[in-house]
Amino acid sequence: MQPVIVGTGSYLPERVVHNDELAKMMDTSDEWIYSHTGIHQRHIAQDDQACSDMAVEAAKRALEDAGLTEKDIDMIIVSTVTGDYNGFPSTAAVVQHKLNAPQAAAMDVSAACAGFIYGLETARGFLLAGTAKRILVIGSEILTRISDWSDRSTCVLFGDGAGAAVVELTEDRPWESALHAEGSGFDKLKRELGGSAFPLKEGEVIGKNAFLYMDGQAVYLFAVRSVGQAIKEVLDKAELTIDDIAYVVPHQANVRIIEAVCKRNKYDLDKFYMNIERTANTSSASIPLALDEMNKKGLLKKGDKIVLCGFGGGLTYGAILLEW
Ligand code: UT7
């Protein structure tokens, strides 16, 4: 037995902010952002929306796609770095409440932009162990809320959104995974304030370390190296080549990263599904968002082998090869 995705769903906030709008707020341009990243626009959540609200919408749509209800779910796994609360309670617990699924276990996974890959593989473990029969895996992020809007080198990159998948076990299908982390790069992409290393102190003025920090070039080099390696690892484990794969669904961080991965590994860029132009980087939501878009467009046919690949803060990375 191996897991199979039986439903997908996603949610993007209504408000769309084009690069041109950002160019009115800071010294940037659509030309710079698009040529350096492939991004034209991002969705930004309303002030009264929290991470869990977007997660719930994506989850409802995934359940509907699967022909299931919230009562059919044994467990909810939410991957996020922008959860409703700082540390606890988990966003998954809030989602469980808002979905009205009290029977479901609930936990968050923290692996930044590789979070959906880690979450899906965690779900596989629970399914194979018999702990749960059907699991909702959700990636939901409100990155615009932790972005440093005075730092044009990072704030233009991110957007908000959520994606979800329902997984259950089925007859044998290929499923290979590779999960890794380069913890030595933990400080290349981070948000310091509020954790136990940099605790909040009453009365203290909030500084830059309350917001997202990224060493863009270090992360870029790591990403190009790690994506190729993770894809190769799952292909090798499955004894397949890239020619056997219908689509690769990479974390949507930067078109240039994916182009560099393809050039380096001689992969066909057309196999890599990208929607970053419209969504920007939504961290752990980006893979399930793209997957749902592909599903709804009818791009995925039963029996198609696809590779999902994530990378980001941690520095974490990983890939999953599965059959649709
Ligand atoms: O999901 C998490 C994973 N994260 C990533 O995948 C991000 C990986 N890194 C990257 O994608 C790239 O490093 C960036 C897109 C973030 C930056 O691209 P870059 O080509 O490395 O640019 P840079 O940081 O070297 O900056 C080049 C120039 C600088 O100006 P000077 O010093 O050469 O005069 C920056 O100040 O571009 C300037 N710049 C901007 N200009 C206009 C930086 N941001 C902007 C901007 N608009 N938004």
Topology:
Blueprint lengths: L1 E10 L3 E4 H7 L4 H8 L3 E4 L6 H16 L8 E5 L11 H9 L5 E5 L5 H15 L4 E9 L9 H4 L4 E11 L4 E7 L7 E2 L22 E2 L1 H23 L8 E4 L4 H11 L10 H4 L6 H11 L8 E8 L3 E8 L1
Parallel strand pairs: 4-5, 4-6, 11-12
Antiparallel strand pairs: 1-7, 2-3, 6-7, 8-13, 9-10, 12-13
Bound molecules: oxa(dethia)-CoA.
Short account of what is shown:
33% of the residues lie in helices and 24% in strands. With 324 residues, the protein is an alpha/beta fold. A hairpin with a 3-residue loop joins β12 and β13.
What is the CATH H-level superfamily of the largest domain? Thiolase/Chalcone synthase
State the separation between the terminal residues, measured CA to CA.
Answer: 15 Å
Give the % helix. Answer: 25-40%
CATH topology of the largest domain: Peroxisomal Thiolase, Chain A, domain 1
CATH class annotation of the largest domain: Alpha Beta
User: Number of helix segments?
Assistant: 10
Bound molecules: oxa(dethia)-CoA
What count of domains describes the coordinates? 2
Question: What is the makeup of the main sheet?
Answer: 5 strands, mixed
Beta-strand proportion: 15-25%
- β-strand number: 13
Low-confidence stretches: none
Radius of gyration: 19 Å
**What is the CATH architecture term of the largest domain?**
3-Layer(aba) Sandwich
With strands numbered from the N-terminus, the spatial order across the biggest sheet is 1-7-6-4-5
Write the element-wise H/E pattern from the N-terminal end onward: EEHHEHEHEHEHEEEEHEHHHEE
Give the CA-based shape. globular
Return the structural class: alpha/beta
Q: What is the mean predicted local confidence, pLDDT?
A: 97
